[in-house]
Inverse folding.
């Protein structure tokens, strides 16, 4: 929320997004997660999607396995949020050639790196793999996964 609940224009928001870089994004996520109670049990809902990209020369846009294949390169996006209070904990964009199942371990390690101690995960079938289940078991994480 902004002071006086001001609604900013699309151009103001676009200008702001152009001015931030990956370091700003990481600093924000670190600061944001530092404000949460690390001893409280949280259930993290995690999902990702892809976006077809026809914008031209964007380094992250790569050919992969899009949900809706229009023959264009794609960019993947993911988000993790606390199901209890519906606050986002992590978001990430990554190249289109990287499949969702391989990104789960990255997210699990990142959430653990924020210091959360009592974590459960809610995942869809895109993250189902023997390696992912073994990794979550080795971390002693509770999880619900569609299979």
């Amino acid at each position: 929320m902004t002071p006086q609940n001001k609604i900013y224009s699309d151009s103001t928001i676009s200008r702001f997004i152009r001015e931030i870089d990956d370091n700003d994004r990481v600093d924000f996520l670190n600061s944001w997660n530092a404000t949460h109670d690390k001893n409280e049990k949280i259930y993290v809902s995690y999902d990702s999607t892809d976006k077809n990209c026809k914008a031209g020369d964007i380094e992250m846009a790569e050919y992969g396995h899009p949900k809706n294949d229009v023959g264009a390169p794609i960019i993947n996006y993911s988000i993790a949020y606390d199901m209890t209070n519906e606050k986002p904990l992590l978001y990430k964009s990554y190249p289109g050639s990287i499949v969702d199942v391989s990104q789960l371990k990255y997210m699990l390690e990142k959430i653990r790196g924020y210091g959360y101690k009592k974590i459960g995960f809610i995942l869809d079938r895109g993250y189902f793999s023997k390696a992912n289940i073994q990794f979550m078991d080795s971390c002693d994480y509770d999880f619900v996964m569609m299979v």
